[in-house]
UniProtKB/TrEMBL annotation:
It is found in: Cell membrane. Residues 18-400 form the Major facilitator superfamily (MFS) profile domain. This is Putative MFS family arabinose efflux permease. The chain crosses the membrane at residues 20-42, 54-73, 80-99, 105-133, 145-166, 172-192, 213-238, 258-278, 285-302, 308-329, 341-360, 372-395. It comes from Kordia periserrulae. The lineage of its organism: Bacteria, Pseudomonadati, Bacteroidota, Flavobacteriia, Flavobacteriales. PANTHER family: MULTIDRUG RESISTANCE PROTEIN MDTH, RESISTANCE PROTEIN MDTM, PUTATIVE-RELATED-RELATED. Pfam families: MFS_1. One of its GO terms (molecular function) is transmembrane transporter activity. GO terms for cellular component: plasma membrane.
Length: 403
């Protein structure tokens, strides 16, 4: 036990103070992000929308995410990550507060589109910040620490949110989301100072730098499509899966929050030691990405059996293992592939892959559920993982050839 504790503590050593501050604001922000995991239930129960309408709203969620990711990457390459992070998160706080006052289908579509366009401009900026504030040898653990903070916050958030919903309904959650966004960015501006070097200055020193290099990088496009498929499957966790728990196993919001907390608890306890161990191994990132896709596909195929409630625990554990490998190493691949001065563009394409998945994953998943049932949806979703496995193997071979 003492050795396990020592190894756990060792996994956090060597990270910069800026990374720790980024982790702190991520924890504060995500602890307050209570609405998103229960958004599909809110739209169905409080607004009385159908599965098709909910899928459409999540499609607007994804479109806003694509716009925000693209815009955030472009602006990060011009102004640097610091200003983009502050403006994005500050305005996002007010957007979340405003969403609770929208009660029509089209109004909510427009509201969520605007909110996510602003909110997800933050994503390329924080990815570039991670690269700026970490050393090459500990980038994976830096990503892991940020993810640990996010997941710890997400563990606190849904668990408390489930209790708040049962006691007081959904309205208070929007206020908490908004206030914590604003609080998090105020903390960031106080604790972390702006970088003086602008990406545009780095580009000006490189005469032959192709500003469109990211769009000509075939291997990076393959990687982005893998991320898209990964997102197509993983984002079911926030749309069809809570509905599945509610309608098939008759779990209330508090119990659903407890199950989602299991995902978070495994990540908080095991991800950093795992990444610390894997960081010392001379294994290509692409192999870890392949393994994550295998776990993801399995997590949905096992859900095809719905006669035993324990199967949802097995599924969430497999999905968590996939997440622990998938997100850190797809992120690390993108950071390593990004050319100096164009980090914003590379990380924008990386973020956009998941954002596009946000458009199609809920819409396709909920449409399949409405017409064919949950079991068919799990088979289709599992196949996204299978295709991602094949592409990961292809990417691995290209990288081994230096392509």
């Amino acid at each position: 036990m003492k050795k396990m504790y020592t190894n756990y503590i060792a996994s956090f050593k060597g990270l910069s103070k800026e990374i720790w501050f980024l982790a702190l604001i991520s924890l504060v922000n995500r602890a307050g992000t209570m609405v998103i995991p229960f958004l599909s239930l809110y739209l169905k129960k409080d607004m009385g929308l159908t599965e098709t309408d909910i899928g459409s709203i999540f499609a607007f969620f994804g479109i806003g995410s694509v716009i925000g990711s693209w815009l955030g990457g472009k602006l990060t390459d011009i102004f640097g990550f610091y200003k983009i992070m502050i403006v994005s998160l500050f305005l996002t706080g007010f957007c979340f507060i405003a969403l609770q006052y929208i009660h029509t289908f089209w109004g909510f579509c427009i509201g969520i589109l605007i909110t996510m366009s602003i909110a997800d401009s933050f994503r390329p900026a924080i990815f570039v910040a991670i690269k700026a504030y970490s050393k090459l040898e500990n980038q994976t653990r830096s990503v892991g620490l940020i993810r640990l903070a996010i997941n710890a916050g997400m563990g606190i958030g849904p668990t408390l949110a489930g209790l708040i919903i049962v006691m007081n309904g959904y309205g208070l959650l929007f206020w908490i989301d908004g206030v914590t966004c604003i609080t998090a960015i105020v903390l960031f501006s106080y604790l972390v100072k702006d970088s003086k070097v602008r990406p545009s200055e780095l580009r000006s020193k490189q005469e032959n730098l192709d500003k469109n290099a990211v769009y000509k990088d075939v291997s990076f496009w393959i990687h982005s499509f893998i991320c898209f498929l990964f997102g197509m499957a993983f984002f079911q966790l926030f749309t069809t899966i809570p509905l599945y728990y509610d309608q098939i196993f008759h779990l209330d919001e508090f119990k659903i929050g407890i199950i989602l907390f299991l995902n978070v608890a495994i990540i908080v306890v095991f991800e950093m030691p795992l990444l610390n161990y894997l960081e010392k191994q001379k294994i290509p990132f692409t192999k870890y990405i392949t393994m994550s896709c295998i776990f993801l596909a399995l997590s949905f195929f096992v859900l095809y059996q719905n006669f035993w409630i324990g199967i949802i625990i097995i599924s969430i554990v497999l999905m968590t293992l996939s997440e622990m490998l998938g997100f850190p190493y797809t992120n690390r691949f993108a950071l390593n592939r990004a050319k100096e001065g164009l980090e914003g563009s590379y990380m924008a394409l990386y973020a956009m892959a998941f954002s596009v998945a946000h458009i199609f994953s809920p819409k396709i998943g909920l449409e399949i559920v409405a017409k064919f049932g949950y079991q068919v949806n799990w088979l289709v979703t599992g196949m996204f993982g299978v295709i991602a496995i094949v592409l990961s193997l292809w990417l691995h071979r290209r990288i081994q050839k230096g392509l």
